[in-house]
Amino acid sequence: MGIFSSIKNAIFGGDEEEAKAAEAPAATAAPGTPAPKPAVVSNVDVVAKLSAMPGAENLNWQSSIVDLFKVLGLDPTYANRKELAEEMGRTDYEGTAEDNIWLHKVTMQQIALNGGTVPSSMTD
């Protein structure tokens, strides 16, 4: 599992929640009937979700990739940020302020593409 998957799971819920949702209908379905697939997560208010997380009020997660990692309970080390940058297609990440601003924006763009409602101030 990559860093972005960890971010996505922390915001939208993990694979365990999806597995539980898929198991419940399967247990009640008639034999030979395929279980319905769980609904794709969409329209999650990312700001509301992250704002409600413990410690969020003390961090600048709205624009800082390091603080975003902290709010999500992820390790914000350079190595993890570099790995995330590589997942996002950037191989020349050096951890500069400009790199971190780019990484935060592209991460928010990907969260939006995966069903999160993210304000344009975090994606533009």
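[next item in queue]
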Amino acid sequence: MTDVFEASAEHEQVVFCHDAASGLRAIIALHSTALGPGLGGTRFYPYASTDDALRDVLNLSRGMTYKNALAGLDLGGGKAVIIGDPATGKTEQLLRAYGRFVQSLNGRYYTACDVGTYSEDMDVVARESRFVTGRTTAHGGAGDSSVLTAYGVFQGMRASAETIWGEPTLAGRIVGIAGVGKVGRHLVRHLTEDGATVVVTDVNADAVLRVREEFPAVKVVASTDALLAEQLDVYSPNALGGALTDDVVETLTARIVCGGANNQLAHTGVEKRLEERGILYAPDYCVNSGGVIQVADELEGFSFERAQQRASGIFETTRRVFALAKSDGVPPAIAADRLAERRIREVGRLRGVYLG
């Protein structure tokens, strides 16, 4: 068993949530509340072990600190995981039990959707907690946050295209999308409207079928390996994390990597190898922050137009990351970290630990 204190040394708080009657086994991790309450989704996933779940929630919550800081939000970083198969274990009883644990943190953590959870689930969680966002439009919420996540990724991709080819457009470029579920499907629409040629793959046959029906011109390949074998201009990982391994980087033909998946770099050092190979990496938490911008806007009384306007700022933020990377002589991933850490340091010192 992992030493929790050692593993979470840079985190403020880790909460293990257990309700035997409903079968709830969850972990909530608060990485930092220096900028405000921690905001991050709830992932419902059949982890092989508690150690795997803990490792994931710690990585994801740290990522949310940086994502929220770089997005200019007055929010810190938090995340939650529920251990189990959402197809068989998700019940009203379990979600409401989870909501009680969220409520017990008294506003230090705001939850929302993530892999395995949906706006309808957040409505159930909200019956036990005030600190829930990403709810359905029927309950005054923002609905599906993947809409603006994809929009933000597209803005980041436009900024990347400008850096490489001099124009902020993907027209005439070949873009490979790995994962066409929530985010990837919306991204296909933005790219086809912009004039790009799109190649997709997904392990979920139904997701591929939906995209093929909506966008008949899209090319479908059988696997991620087959996608990587294509002559791509842009590679866009939009499934689970760890997509950019050493082997993937060595086989990439794309000049740009820009996608909606979290924690794309399989390990520290991959960002340097990308740069060595002349591949521009748009840091994942920079370009995929449209979703968190959307659910954060809900806390003010949701306006899609206002949230979309804020998410359009991802274009300029991505530009700033590339500019700092060039001036400091570092990969964009390190430049993004420096911008986020600067804001946490300069603004966070005024706030300290958020009490709720």
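[queue empty]
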